């Protein structure tokens, strides 16, 4: 069986298309590369959707945390504290069993007990909390002069927010937010190890890497393959966010632009 | 535990709960909190040592050593840490067995990797095949500690490397002007001064380490996550005196609260330490303290 046949059989295995049975013996490198790569579909799915949806909630939370009214501020502070103060791993477990209990009472919740929806919800809340803290920090460091200038032009409310505060906040937050995006993608590897079942062995990249390591009892092939995929993903994220960063900073002289620096500081 | 617990069926309400929460298995759950704390207590200093070694290696003037240090710092950047956890546990185990195999059975002629099996001679097995159960558990725990230390050592190396770079260059130049050797300048000038710069990063690392402890579960140690799943699952009257439905949600809610409290307390304590250390420092925070006092 040539490598192309393997790719045809397993390239979309993680979403249930192609050969049903996973390889059981005589594992080839080609099989491992294909299947682990196939699992990356889930990592990208979780990462991209959680980031896109989390961005909006994070902006709202950051606004709420900066608000004067305690009715807005307190809930936002608690939300951020709960999701940043506890391990993501425990959050996954708790959410899974919570959804399981809810499903017993209200059948509406049954999609949430499967990974594609349930884990996405947890990741969405989690990244919202972390990003909200970043956005809040950035909002606090908007130069006073910018706001004063907006006031002088007679701007207030929505125009002031979307023309002055929001772009400046994004610009200041972007390097840290890039970091957050990278570690969100890394965090997606936890999904299938934390309660959420992989139905019909449709799992993410780490799920398949772990499968091969268990079967072959040789961790030195699947995990480096996984590492290569994740490094490629990380570089892609840095590239994409770098483009946005350049656009956000295009009005500034070269020397004042915020640089994206990778800080490996977040296990959740 | 209590004398009235001998007839669990007759109990109800709080008395039932007090008996339920003091069964033998629940004691194991409480002890596993100790496992987590032990892990933290051992890992934190060991990781700091690893980190110090990595950071000093990365600064070395001997190129291969500096590459080694930088590679060590770099490993944690692009790849999810959970992948490292899963990888290191098997890799370390096989590495130890391989080394022992080479030493203890030099005249073994079969290959070590036979298809999907990793075969070493009986004397090289770790722990030995006839070892007691607790030896297996301790070995598993030590492997986990080593894995945590290696990974968090890399994080710490990154922080300490940054801190060493942050010590003003003029300090080292002054040391050189006084005729100190490279080694003397490192130990007498750089190392004592770098901690102030390293502390924010290290306290962040401590929080991260706390939040990484549930991953022990994936390394095969019977930790709090293991017991929460075990005790929370549905229990039928056939196997236990305390039958109940699926309570795993409540057990994980308790763990969630435990971690929230733990991180909150750490935050408060670290804040205090930071405030104590910045007192009198020529930094912005120190200046602000001085002004507030005046």
UniProtKB/TrEMBL annotation, chain A:
InterPro entries documented for this protein:
AA_ABC_transptr_permease_3TM, ArtM/GltK/GlnP/TcyL/YhdX-like, MetI-like, MetI-like_sf
Q: Which UniProt keywords apply?
A: Amino-acid transport, Cell membrane, Membrane, Transmembrane, Transmembrane helix, Transport
List localization entries. Cell inner membrane; Cell membrane
* Bilayer disposition of the protein: Multi-pass membrane protein
Q: Give the transmembrane ranges.
A: 44-64, 76-99, 181-200, 220-244
* Predominant location category: membrane
The protein's matches in Pfam families, at most eight in alphabetical order, are given as: BPD_transp_1
Instruction: Report if keyword Aminoacyl-tRNA synthetase is assigned.
Output: no
Please indicate if the UniProt record lists Transport as a keyword.
Answer: yes
Q: Where is the ABC transmembrane type-1 domain?
A: 40-242
Question: Per its UniProt record, what CDD domains does this chain match?
Answer: TM_PBP2 (cd06261)
- Entry's family note: Belongs to the binding-protein-dependent transport system permease family. HisMQ subfamily.
Q: What NCBIfam families does the record tag this protein with?
A: HEQRo_perm_3TM
Instruction: Kindly provide the name given to this protein in its UniProt entry.
Output: ABC transporter permease subunit
Species: Albidovulum sediminicola
Automatic annotation (TrEMBL), chain B:
Entry's localization field: Cell membrane
Indicate the principal place this protein occupies in or around the cell. membrane
State which residue ranges cross the membrane.
30-50, 71-92, 138-164, 185-209, 249-270
Q: Where is the ABC transmembrane type-1 domain?
A: 33-270
Q: How does it sit in the membrane?
A: Multi-pass membrane protein
Q: Which Pfam families match?
A: BPD_transp_1
Q: Which SUPFAM superfamilies match?
A: MetI-like
The superkingdom of the source organism is Bacteria
Q: Could you list this entry's UniProt keywords, alphabetically sorted.
A: Membrane, Transmembrane, Transmembrane helix, Transport
Q: Does the keyword Transport apply?
A: yes
**In which family does this protein belong, per the annotation?**
Belongs to the binding-protein-dependent transport system permease family.
Q: What is the official name of this protein in its record?
A: ABC transporter permease subunit
> What's the source species for this entry?
Albidovulum sediminicola
Which lineage is the organism of this entry classified under, starting from the top rank? Answer: Bacteria, Pseudomonadati, Pseudomonadota, Alphaproteobacteria, Rhodobacterales
